[in-house]
């Protein structure tokens, strides 16, 4: 009896530690977002001012990605776009590619979280019950791959037909818009008591810097309220606060903020660097604690029961409904949390410990994309009457973009390409750790900057250089997917890439180069355990090491 009570007490303490770690994990994500906003807000505002550049769809897409990466908040980026559209600095047509880029940029948070787990090979790579199974990095990659594939299809279509813009106009024409209330603020109500003691930001300054409606040079909020005093008939009392008005009303007196940097003389850049270092440290520590506590709590029958419940399917013939229910769950939770970044970042550790499979996490991520747009729709309905139509149309375009992505890459099971592509990324990052870093830099920085430079050179240059490259990448992806299925009609020369030079179909030469340039565990190859050795003897796993 005593041992059982002690076991229950230890389990209770572990559960409390898990909830506490999760709370500080969410708070660290909030502070991380604030740090990125302090470091990149002015640059984001200056970028959005370049309306001539934004008229190019590819440039608008890239700017949406880069700005969201800079400020680490799709809501902030979307609010900038809405403000500029309502101020007539941007047209709705120009804002559509930017919204697409915002949708891509928000997936970087889950990628950063998955990389924080890369120190533990089992968590980074595989499920406890399946050494050759899904990876934590696969879960973060599947979100970004889905967004990029959707952009590759819808951006050219939108540029040619303005499909999303026209569809949003039809919906708005059929709807009778009435100003609505704000979306629920459950997550912020829980985290603000702590995060507001550290730093508070004036998010309107970012939008104001793009629209030219602000003179505030700092994003850090110094004043957090106003105090009005009515003192009639006493000039002495008026003089104590300043000059009186005709009705002997004292001017509004501002209340100073009480957070850590409210009275600091440090610049936004210095405060951003401090918050970035501190939030990343706390985030990594909390992530390690969450993973360790989950591994400790979810053992044996408990783990099996939890996996069975979360990954369960409806009985035949309604099994196909399970994924759509997961989409609704992801949309609902994201709507309640008001943060797709927090939701997706919380899913990744659960995948790392084997609680959620990649096939179940995929619809959850898709639902998260829908959930964050419904929050924006409600927020847009609370806009002033003069900007209501523009705000709702931009939010509605964001919603329709994600809905079209679900129709493209989830409705038909054979077209769920992000899942096999993400599994391949998991295999590669498990064997070569540096692939995760290369993926992060290429996807969210180098390739967007290259596309941006080509777009500035002109549409002809962009089409001549970018078109064949995109076509080649899509062809390679398609052939790799077909190689897994091995259809009989596939030409013999495409059933294997062995006829190409080694550096074109294997990462081994690149791995030797990266290991030489960056020695150590951070970039070097992972050590394959005896438990996992058979994975690389499997032809399908070996094929995943090839391009």
Record the SSE blueprint.
Layout: H1 2-49, H2 51-54, H3 57-71, H4 74-86, H5 92-105, H6 108-116, H7 121-125, H8 136-161, H9 163-174, H10 186-198, H11 204-211, E1 223-227, H12 235-241, E2 253-256, H13 268-297, H14 300-310, H15 321-337, H16 340-352, H17 358-381, H18 388-409, H19 418-431, H20 434-456, H21 459-485, H22 502-505, H23 508-517, H24 539-543
Antiparallel strand pairs: 1-2
Return Rg in Å: 26 Å
- The structural class is mainly alpha
Total individual domains: 1
**Average of per-residue pLDDT values:** 75
SSE string, helices as H and strands as E:
HHHHHHHHHHHEHEHHHHHHHHHHHH
Principal-axes geometry comes out as globular
Number of strands: 2
Tell me what portion of residues adopts beta-strand conformation. Answer: under 5%
Q: Ranges with pLDDT <50 over ≥5 residues?
A: 125-134, 229-251, 526-547
Q: Which features characterize this protein?
A:
globular; mainly alpha; 2 strands; 68% helix
């Amino acid at each position: 009896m005593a041992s059982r009570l002690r076991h229950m007490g230890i389990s209770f303490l572990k559960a409390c530690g898990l909830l506490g770690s999760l709370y500080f994990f969410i708070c660290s994500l909030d502070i991380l977002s604030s740090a990125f906003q302090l470091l990149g807000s002015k640059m984001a505002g200056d970028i959005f001012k370049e309306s001539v550049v934004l008229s190019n769809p590819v440039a608008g897409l890239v700017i949406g990605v880069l700005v969201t990466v800079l400020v680490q908040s799709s809501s902030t980026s979307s609010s900038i776009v809405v403000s500029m559209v309502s101020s007539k600095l941007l047209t709705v047509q120009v804002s559509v590619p930017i919204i697409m880029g915002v949708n891509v940029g928000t997936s970087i948070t889950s990628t950063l979280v998955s990389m924080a787990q890369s120190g533990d090979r089992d968590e980074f790579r595989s499920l406890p019950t399946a050494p050759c199974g899904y990876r934590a990095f696969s879960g973060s990659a599947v979100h970004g791959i889905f967004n990029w594939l959707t952009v590759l299809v819808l951006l050219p279509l939108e540029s040619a037909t303005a499909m999303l813009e026209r569809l949003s106009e039809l919906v708005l024409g059929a709807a009778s818009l009435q100003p609505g209330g704000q979306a629920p603020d459950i997550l912020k109500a829980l985290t603000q008591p702590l995060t507001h003691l550290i730093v508070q930001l004036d998010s309107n300054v970012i939008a104001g810097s793009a629209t030219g409606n602000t003179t505030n040079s700092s994003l850090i909020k110094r004043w957090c309220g106003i105090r009005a005093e009515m003192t009639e008939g006493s000039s002495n009392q008026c003089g104590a606060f300043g000059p009186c008005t005709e009705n002997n009303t004292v001017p509004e007196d501002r209340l100073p903020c009480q957070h850590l940097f409210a009275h600091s003389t440090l610049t936004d850049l210095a405060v951003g660097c401090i918050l970035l270092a501190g939030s990343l440290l706390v985030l990594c520590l909390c992530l390690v604690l969450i993973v360790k506590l989950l591994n400790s709590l979810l053992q044996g029958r408990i783990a099996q029961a939890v996996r069975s419940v979360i990954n369960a399917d409806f009985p035949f013939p309604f099994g196909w409904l399970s994924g759509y229910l997961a989409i609704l769950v992801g949309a609902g939770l994201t709507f309640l949390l008001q943060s797709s970044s927090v939701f997706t970042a919380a899913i990744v550790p659960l995948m790392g410990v084997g609680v959620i499979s990649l096939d179940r996490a995929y619809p959850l991520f898709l639902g998260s994309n829908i959930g964050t747009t419904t929050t924006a729709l409600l927020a847009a309905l609370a806009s002033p009457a003069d900007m209501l139509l523009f705000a709702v149309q931009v939010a509605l375009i964001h919603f329709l973009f994600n809905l079209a992505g679900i129709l493209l890459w989830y409705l038909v099971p054979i077209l769920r390409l992000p899942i096999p592509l993400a599994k391949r990324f998991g295999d590669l990052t498990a064997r070569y750790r540096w692939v995760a870093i290369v993926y992060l830099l290429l996807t969210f920085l180098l390739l967007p900057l290259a596309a941006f430079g080509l777009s500035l050179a002109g549409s002809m240059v962009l089409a001549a250089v970018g078109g064949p490259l995109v076509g080649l990448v899509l062809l390679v992806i398609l052939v790799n997917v077909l190689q897994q299925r091995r259809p009989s009609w596939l030409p013999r020369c495409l059933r294997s890439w062995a006829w190409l030079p080694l550096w074109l179909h294997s990462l081994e030469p690149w791995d030797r180069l990266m290991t030489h340039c960056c020695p150590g565990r951070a970039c070097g190859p992972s050590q394959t355990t005896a438990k996992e050795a058979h994975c690389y003897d499997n032809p399908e796993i070996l094929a995943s090491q090839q391009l």
